[in-house]
Amino acid sequence: MAPSLQAVLAILLVAACLAAIHVPLGRYLHWVFTDPRHTRAERVVYRLGGIDPSVEQRPTFYALSLLAFSLVSLIVLWLLLLLQAHLPYAYGRTMDPLVAFNTAASFVTNTNWQSYVPEASAGYAVQALGLTVQNFVSAGVGLAVAIALIRGLARCDTDRIGNFWVDLVRGTVRVLLPLALLAALVLVGLGVVQTLRAPLGVTTLAGGHQVIQGGLAASQEAIKQLGTNGGGFFGANAAHPLESPNGWTNLLEILLMMAIPSALPRTYGLMVADRRQGWTIAAVMASLGVAGMGLLAWLEVGRGSLEGKEVRFGTAWSAVFASATTSTATGAVDAAHESLTPLGGGVAMLNMMLGELSPGGVGTGLTTMIVMIIVTVFIAGLTVGRTPELLGKTIGRREISLAALAMLVPPALVLVGTGLAVIIPASRAAIFATGPAGFSEVLYAFTSAANNNGSAFAGLGASQPFLDAGLAFAMLTGRFVPLVALVSLAGGLAAQGRRPVTAGTLPTHTPTFAGFLLVVILLLTGLTYFPSLALGPIAGLS
Amino acid sequence: MTIHPRPQGGSLARLAVRALPQALRKLDPRHVITSPVIFVVWIGSVLTTVLAIISPSVFSVSVAGWLWATIVFANLAEAIAEGRGKAQADTLRATRTNTTARRLTDDGTEEDVPGTDLDLGDLVVVEAGQVIPGDGDVIEGVASVDESAVTGESSPVIREAGGDRCSVTGGTTVLSDRIVVKITARPGSTFIDKMIALVEGAARQKTPNELALSILLVTLTIIFTLAVGALRMQAAYPGADLSLLMLVALLVCLIPTTIGALLSAIGIAGMDRLVRRNVLAMSGRAVEAAGDVNTLLLDKTGTITFGNRRATDVFPVEGVDRDDLVAAVRLASLADATPEGRSIVDFAEAAGVSGEPSNQASLAVLGADVVPFTAQTRMSGVDMPDGSLLRKGAGSQVTAWVEAGGGVVPSGLQAVIDAVSQRGATPLVVARSRDGVPAVLGVVELKDVVKPGLRERFDELRAMGIRTVMVTGDNPLTARAIAEEAGVDDFLAEATPEDKLRLIRGEQATGRLVAMTGDGTNDAPALAQADVGVAMNTGTSAAKEAGNMVDLDSDPTKLIDIVAIGKQLLITRGALTTFSIANDLAKYFAIIPAMFVAIYPGLQALNIMRLHSPSSAMLSAVIFNAVIILALVPLALHGVAYKPMSASAMLRRNLAVYGLGGVIAPFIGIKLIDLLVSLLPGLG
Question: Would A111 disulfide with which of A103, A452, B511, B523, CB 3.0-4.6 Å?
């Protein structure tokens, strides 16, 4: 099959599968977060944690719960990584404290930037008990905030936006665990490794020595994609044959990472009792997602080489995977992104720079989109001569301030972080490539960290003190400042009444609005990053 | 001495020249800092000026000069907007002469005190020819007052103690008689003082939407400042040492200077548009709320109808000729000076019945006796010299008169009366007694006539999502008929002030914003409760105090204009914000290749405008950025064209004009400026 035809079919196949999945999954998510009952397993968790699941929280407590949980997660994971030598199945692997902190920050923020080499520094137990657990709960945190924000829009005249612990537990127990289990079994069936045996040293036919890796890869792989985490069990991530042995696992992993983010717009539509709102978001996400995939595939197929790509996937599927992983907050890779054409790499960066909303991370894709909708509604609302409102909620000073904060933090981290990294000699020395591609390595790293993606451009020797600390700071700030702003935004919206819909109300479900939203997203992102992109990917043209 | 609309065509340039000194004074950083976006430009201007002094070149001097021009243009917009108000304030201030008040002391004597020494509750005497020393209520007497100093209306108005016409405004002149006024406002906070502060913009505070927009603009400014600041570090990677001059130029072009420069001018001009229509808004917040209004409460009388009943039709009973009926009722009304009576004569004339006698005087010449309306008989008419008696009046009274005289009331009469009532009109029964035998002739329909063109305006309002509710003291039957005729969405019949208040609260409970007009003291609670409460200037001071706007013309229909002005204000802000942000695309395509083409020649591909040189490209972008502010000043001051339509249609229209236009215009503008700038010698 001609690669270009293969690319078109690949994109259509992914789009068709997601179109089919998002309907039942969106409805299921709606049920999960609106069901008045608690399952027995959940009740056990609540009793152990001393939580009263029937009590809803004010925004401040919701945010404090979230921060407390994440802080404890950060500390526990850091300690686990530092003390892993005392855990079973460690196989002598250890991690430097700063790298361990970077790793802990990376997994707690759902980024999964890997400054470490798993085969050398992360044993089986710490991967399963530390990293995989965070793969679940960090995604659960993102999902919880998205649901809280939707509640803010759906509710009126209340100071309660839900219970963080209930949202976290339900998202984990009812959504992530069962789906990950199912996916892990399928992955094992398709040939992904799942064993506690130590790496196997063999002598090849040619007489060379080879180590065949082992470990609980399938179970980590499933949640790594489903939770848009992206941290590979092996250093080569999904390019490693034991993580993703064939085209089927590649497709399944693409679908897993996009499944929940694609379904959330439908959940949104159901929760705010206006499905058209969900369709609008889905349409904008799909347009950006398909455009990104199409553009990346077009730039790679026929122009790019197979260097840095896996023969078993080919350029077309590698391009689709690269776009999927950067347009969700996943960051898993099945090819070296530095081997993409300069502009192809630029599209991968642009996907992340958009704030990952095509369809984005678990929860964070939808929240980023809602922030952009608020900004769009604000500008569009003024042009129709009304105080801007979204779903009957006035977008005033408080709302625009919080949306602006959520919108402002990631670009600030990327721009300043990249600038500092290229002028500080130590981190500058860590750059591998020369010319614009070298700049792209750093730009990519900070874009990935601040937007909680986690994929890397390769090349950059990121295990270096400034980069480890700087990227950890970018990951933590890029994650938690927006999340807290979003919870506060949810609280403010929930406290408002609802203005009635009239002919004078700006409709937020029409093609005109969707088109304007698309333009605002592209324009704001473009204007913010154009100079940086000009120095990296675009300059790479010449 | 008036605040009526003044001609302004072609005067903008003159206004600009007059405002220039003020604009230069506003370069003071203490003023500039009130607009963060322009403050960033100010810092940039200072920086580039220093750079231009250190190493003067055509380029550096030009950039510095144009950056200062950018701020001056921004200040100019504000100064022009304020200048319009200043002129009005000056004329108002002239009325605030130092009057001497004749204060009544406790023992009943008068003492002369300066008007500025008056306190709340003081009683002052004002006689013909004297200026009323302060705001207050007439508590004794009646006088005609010239209020042209405030309203611009030259015909005098009657002010009298008690009722809804007791309030007088300081600075107006009593033309006749003597009144005693109880002072209700301290000197310095009188109505005229408030007006001066308002039109001058001294009391101007940023409105909620303006604040929210400022936050968005500041956010964009921060993002672009970071992007440009980081660029200096990032560009060090390939070894480019970006000059500060270039970076400042890039930054100024990217931050939303256009809307930042015009934002306060738009707000001042919006208030000014209201003042031009003789409406004073006590706060900018109220003007914005007007744009958001969902429900308009309109008083029937004076707003929807002309306010007096007019004869619109006649219905003769069986056996009576229509012309006979018309002639009879005309005779009966000739001496009737009420508007209803006049309208009957007019109706007869329109129906072709005229001639002698033509008025009360000619009736008297004929020897007819006029029977005036009394509360007891509740009928009026005329006794003709030939012995025939004509009577008109309410159905029950006239039929009683007929029956008392031995006449027979036709069986069909009641049906005609009911039919007229159901149409929302008042039936007037006409009877004539000839040779001692009275008989009913027929019914005249008196109707409160709906003002023409209202239905279309209500349709427009509906298209904009605004519901109209007619408020009337009429019975539900009459109210319904008039509501249907006028095309309002709903009505409140037999309305008491409490009903009005309840209606407003009910609407607000469902998240709607309500606007209303009122003039009486009993309207005050509703005026205070409404989101937009427009008090009539003829109203009581309680009403004026309760509302957040005052209409000096006392024209309740103006509520609809006020809504339009509120919307226009918001649309202008939104349109210019969209335009401002859309402009950035072209500026990037001008500046980025200019900056980096020396390091990465491939970036020349981005120079899609084929600009002459890096220096000319940058300077062109900076010049465009400054000039566009000046070009948009008229739009900011007059507001964007506004036509009532649905929000969807308006969004499509405004995005096409200001969004798409904002993308395209700078490509053309920068290219044209580049063609000129490239001719500059020594620019490179």
Answer: A452
Question: Could you tell me how many residues make up chain A?
Answer: 542
Residue B486 has pLDDT above 90, yes or no: no
Question: CB neighbours of A52 closer than 8 A, spacing ≥ 6?
Answer: A46
| Six token digits for residue B104 | 């009544």
- Count Cβ–Cβ pairs < 8 Å, chain A vs chain B: 221
Q: Between these two residues, A232 and B42, which has the higher pLDDT value? A: B42
Q: What's the pLDDT at B3? A: 36
Over residues B149-186, the pLDDT tens digits come to 776 666 777 888 877 678 888 888 888 888 888 888 88
- B225 at A interface, C-beta within 8 A: no
List of chain B residues whose C-beta atoms are within 8 Å of the C-beta of residue A436: 238, 600
Name the pTM for this structure.
Answer: 0.87
Tens digit of pLDDT for each residue in B622-638? 999 999 999 999 999 88
Is the separation of the CB atoms in B544 and B526 below 8 Å? Answer: no
* CB-based burial, B240-278: b 16+ in 10 Å, e otherwise: bebeebbbbbbbbbbbbbbbbbbbbbbbbbbbbbbbbbb
A15: CB partners within 8 A, 6+ apart: A286, A290
Nearest-CA distance A476 → chain B (Å): 20
Q: What percent of chain B has pLDDT over 90?
A: 23
Which parts of B293-427 fold into alpha helices (H)?
322-333, 339-350, 360-366, 395-404, 413-422
Structure tokens at A329: 């907050």
Give B267's contacts in chain A (Cβ within 8 Å): none
Q: Which of A498, A519, A542 is nearest residue B511 as measured by Cβ atoms?
A: A498
**Are A516 and A380 within 8 A, CB to CB?**
yes
Which letter does DSSP use for residue A330 in this model? -
In whole angstroms, give the CA distance from residue B47 to residue A247: 58
Given a cut of 70, whether residue A120 has pLDDT beyond it is yes
Nearest CA-CA distance, residue B653 and chain A, Å: 9
Tell me the torsion sign for CA atoms B582, B583, B589, B592: negative
Q: Residue A38 half-sphere exposure, CB side, CA atoms within 13 Å? A: 19
Sheet holding B173-174, edge to edge: B157-160, B142-146, B173-174
Query: Cα-flanking dihedrals φ and ψ of residue B312, to 5°?
Result: -120, -20
The first and second tokens of residue A538, run together, are 């675009």
Contact state of A400 with B238 under an 8 Å Cβ cutoff: no
Most confident segment among A38-47, B75-84, B260-269: A38-47
Task: Write b or e for each residue in B121-148: b if 16 or more Cβ atoms lie within 10 A of its Cβ, otherwise e.
Answer: ebbbbbeeebbbbbbbbbeebbbbbbbb
How far does the CA of residue A381 sit from the closest CA of chain B (Å)?
Answer: 7
A205-250: pLDDT as tens digits = 888 888 888 888 898 899 999 999 988 888 888 888 888 899 999 9
Nearest to B215 among A401, A510, A528 (CB): A401
- Residues from chain B that touch A399, judged by Cβ atoms under 8 A, are 212
| pLDDT tens digits along A250-295 | 999 999 999 999 999 999 999 999 999 999 999 999 999 999 999 9
Q: Hey, is the C-beta of B46 within 8 angstroms of any chain A C-beta?
A: no
Whether residue B647 and residue A526 make contact (CB cut-off 8 A), yes or no, is no
CA distance B65 to A156: 53
Instruction: Answer whether B35's CB lies under 8 Å from B74's CB.
Output: yes
Q: Catalytic residue, from B299, B448, B555, B674: name it.
A: B299
- Residue B508: exposure state from Cβ atoms within 10 A (0-12, 13-18, ≥19): middle
The answer to whether the beta carbons of residues A377 and B644 sit under 8 Å apart is no
User: What values do phi and psi take at B551, rounded to 5?
Assistant: -95, 115
Q: How far is CA B496 from CA B493, B500, B505, B532, B535, in A?
A: 9, 6, 14, 19, 18
pLDDT of residue B529 exceeding 80: yes
Is-catalytic flag, B299? yes
